[in-house]
């Protein structure tokens, strides 16, 4: 871990000069970081930003301020002035508005009744296709202009827009309902007696509690001769200046100033998890000026005047003052409680409201009224629409010019057309209206239907159903489903998202030895029935007899501890680290520790262990409470709770604690219990600056004992042997750096994929052409059976590090021999390491302890050091006087207390180290690893402190043991210099290891530093350098970040990720067909109200129904129960939905181009007069009845690859990131195919039937033939030939459409009115063209030719892909060496890479990475049973227990299936006479 600080000694602390900045720019240029910026051009960027800023300014001035009256309020002159009164008869006036303060209502919905329709109309017609049809539909309503009717475009358009608006309105109405529930919550407010509906409670005093139903029952206090009492009201009724009362575990309804708290010394404990994500309780204390506000009468008599700051989003600072009786005291963050917090461990608290509604800190940090999100693919679709508009215009102009040519050549000669000429303007408009359907009108409506089906598929996925909480996945926003397949950044909250917010004591280091604590795991397994045996352990009595030495014992009293007797045969550990699952765990546990203490109570190690356990039980601030007959602890920190519970499990139970004493209950072996009371003299509280806490107690033997616990960085310099400890710490650090560097170099030699990550699979394949039964004789190369072409034996179903050891053994004594004899026989070997003299060697203890701390940290465990010293009476009294003066000081109180603590916390003796596990949710490390392999960068944004965030990052494998961690800290110097130092470090590594893969890098930044980036006058160009550096970093950890900072960071990454990905060495043609890729999309995931702004700012927001409530799950675009489901949501549903939507778009445009091209070709035979080839009724229902299912059904049910493959090989996700499904090249390919197929259909129908028609040579017969071919071919291609996952639904859709077309033919023949102009429809199918064989021959010939060409192309492409020749490139195919090598292989000669032929790796260079293999190859792999089962096993890692129970397969069925798979491919190969493509693939994990 590195914290870079640039020296500013020669710069006087100022920012770096221009030369330094130019150096930074050159460094970034070498690293390739600023290359995208250089390509775009500074001037172009400046112009774009200027235009954007001007547009935003005009929008704000004329739209927001003028129309919607949303003006920015000026700051007040001297803050808000709020008098303290029990009740205000008139609302207080806001100086900035000149009216009353805003009500306490919030709104998370996007629209109001007034702006819904204008905003929706603007949003709908900002979609390019809708705007295009509006421009076409309006002139079409003019009589005499359109040849296809006056309202055929505008009415369907308005109907489709109406449906979309109704759907959006319904979604926003649901948000309004949630807001209504939030605003109607109950609060207790002070009101005049007789005001409203109040309900009397028999309790009196501020300590009374509400009943269980908080929303219906109010608590009141009626004082004699008092005019005020407590009333129940709704949150929305609260106003600034109201006095409210809070009960325990009640949420705070608005920002308040504390007036009273019934905690010790006016203290209230507040949980801010929903506000900033922190799990530790905050101490809030009433200002000394408000001490009299402990009764209603006291509040009424206290004429206090508050002056507080204007509403702002800063969560970590508050400025204000309170004046009482002429005395003014400051108000800080310590006296203010914000909305969203929860009162904990405090029976009652009273406060005065200072901010309400949208002006609360929580709402100021929220992304209020976010805009509707659009899919990223819509930009590509818009470009396609623009290109098709150009096509429509070209066709219209071309046909119009054709009409002019025909008019000059023929029309003036035809006497029957005299005086019937048409103006050129009318001709071109008529053709434009006729061909406008090339852009399908129902595109967005059909797409909405597809997305509804995709949403239903996602919601019904049992693999994302959480059985524990009975929560399925839920899609709240179905308009951006395809965005799930193009995510490049994931921004994750920590508490409740990655972790369960449950701390467990896991390891301890005592005297250089480490012990594993897993009593909780064994207890859980026994309760769940997971242990193999359930033998009840015996009670074993042993005596803890500390010696009288002052430095080794605390009491001369003999105590007894009861533990279960361990099994002499040590079983394997049941716990595995999530950060380092392959790390070997200690072979001894805390149960073994207690056994050793019992056997050898006077041993030096036993005395140190007893001291360690007592320190755990004493050094904390937990308060025990008895609930339902059991002791529960109320702790300000979950870490302290874990330590106290571990001490309880080890026999030291805290039964009582006050500000003066703490009582421990130590269990005796005979069933009795012994209590010992320790007098608490002083507690020096923990703070973020001190990073430690200390407690001074008087032991039962009257000695004074100081116990300190804290971070290793602050404990180490305060040890008695600090110089030796520092020396050993440096030695350990250097040794670890050498180990990490060796590990990094080893990892750098491992195979990597195309984006630098470790591949999920390493696939090696070879290719040769085998000719069997040829004229030249059999090939000397042995024939490779298909069944043996996939060697997967070395690929395990799940990595060993992801599995716990399978056997669970409960330690128990053997009953065959006396227990004493059994222990005596084994204890000498079992605890032999404790007899080593190094256990008492301080140097060896320091070395081992620091090594343990590093191991704990890399395993993702939170570490603390315990140290102690004994104080003499005189030494304590001298210090106590100094500390008392600091406590009572009115100026610099906190600083003086910290200075006093510094005096006594010196010359400490090391007790040991603890390791606490912040339990992750199931599957979190595996999910993060999958996402990283999918080329997704994962950021962790949290409000917790830096050390906690880094620890969780290691535990979740966001950081690796060998990761380079760079810390940016504004308190350590100029940020611009720190960033340049990071770049220097990265460049040095790149130069020294040019051929190796760069190491995994992590940047850590806090909220204060993030805010400093936006101060150019202080830190220069640090902001631009930071956002240019970030894309080259693998992961980022942002700690101490407010909700607003989280949202701004997500927004900044969205804006800075829009960089061009085009290299300069591409030809002009390549530039045209290879446009800019879609920038990586952002996804935010969280579970609390503090994450709402971040979820709204990202392209995709995912909420988790976690411990912080359901706010995020209700508001987010998608909701899942656990973080592990995110991998399936992205890798499976994201890939499927992106592929489905891409296919839907190109297929929709393809079928329209294919249908209308014959109409354009037909115009030459009508004098370009605009006569339609198709009959109008059929044309009207074309997209509704006959070509809707062929794009909608695959858009919902198609699966190009199985879910097992996508989960096992996350690298396949990059296909969507690289616009593999929809890009200009693919679109042009489909359009060229549509043109070619349309030409073929027209000329075959015209040539085979139009010229030789026997019974009907009218227009309807030919047009109906072309229409029938188009219907059959469209459905056959899209539903049968191009669909990989053919289910009954797919085949049923084809059958329905195919049969429905012939039913429609019968309907037309009978329903059409008699007539012959221009379409003779009546009875034509039965009497004219229907019985004509030529019509059917032309139909079958056209469809057959298209099918043959399509199948031939697909077969050739598949064989070339499997053989690795598909990506060879046309230039390589033009070289003789390529054909020479192929001929050599065909003759049985050279194999892969032999002779002068092209090298395999060079020819299929992209094929070396599994993510760049074509989908056809993966589809071929999935057909192999062995490969399919292996991929399925790999995909289940991290998701064990999710989804439906697998069906059991008998051993006989499994063997039969295996034999069938091995035998069937051999039969297929033996019958071939021509050259057969034979592949050999070897897969290993």
- Structural class per helix/strand content? alpha+beta
Any low-confidence stretches, pLDDT <50, length ≥5? Answer: 1-44, 197-225, 530-572, 765-825, 1059-1074, 1389-1407, 1448-1454, 1456-1485
Based on DSSP secondary structure assignment, what is the total number of beta strands? 41
Residue share in β-strands: 15-25%
- Average of per-residue pLDDT values: 75
The helical percent reads 40-55%
Spatial extent as radius of gyration = 38 Å
- Give the biggest sheet: 10 strands, mixed
Condensed summary:
With about 1500 residues, the chain is of the alpha+beta class. Helices cover about 40% and strands about 15% of the residues.
Give the SSE layout.
Layout: E1 2-3, H1 18-31, H2 35-40, H3 42-67, E2 80-83, E3 93-94, E4 99-100, H4 116-125, H5 128-140, H6 154-183, E5 186-192, E6 228-234, E7 243-247, E8 255-261, E9 267-271, H7 273-276, E10 281-285, H8 296-301, E11 305-308, E12 320-324, E13 327-331, E14 336-337, E15 342-344, E16 348-355, H9 361-364, H10 377-409, H11 424-434, H12 443-459, E17 474-475, E18 487-492, E19 499-510, E20 513-516, H13 519-528, E21 539-544, E22 559-564, H14 590-599, H15 604-618, E23 623-627, E24 630-634, H16 638-649, E25 652-657, E26 661-667, E27 673-684, E28 692-698, E29 704-710, H17 712-715, H18 722-748, E30 762-771, E31 790-791, H19 819-830, H20 842-858, E32 861-871, H21 873-887, H22 893-904, E33 909-920, H23 924-933, E34 937-941, H24 946-955, E35 964-968, H25 975-992, E36 1001-1006, H26 1007-1012, H27 1016-1019, H28 1022-1029, E37 1035-1039, H29 1043-1056, H30 1068-1073, E38 1081-1086, H31 1092-1097, E39 1100-1104, H32 1111-1115, E40 1118-1120, H33 1125-1162, H34 1176-1180, H35 1182-1186, H36 1189-1197, H37 1203-1208, H38 1214-1217, H39 1224-1250, H40 1259-1281, ...
Parallel strand pairs: 1-35, 18-34, 18-38, 31-41, 34-37, 35-36, 36-37, 38-39, 39-40
Antiparallel strand pairs: 2-11, 3-4, 5-6, 5-7, 7-16, 8-14, 8-16, 9-10, 9-15, 11-12, 12-13, 17-40, 19-20, 19-33, 21-22, 23-24, 25-26, 26-27, 27-28, 28-29, 29-32, 30-41, 32-33
Helix pairs in contact: 1-25, 4-6, 5-6, 10-11, 12-33, 12-36, 15-16, 18-20, 21-22, 23-33, 25-28, 33-36, 33-39, 33-40, 36-40, 36-41, 39-40, 39-43, 40-41, 40-43
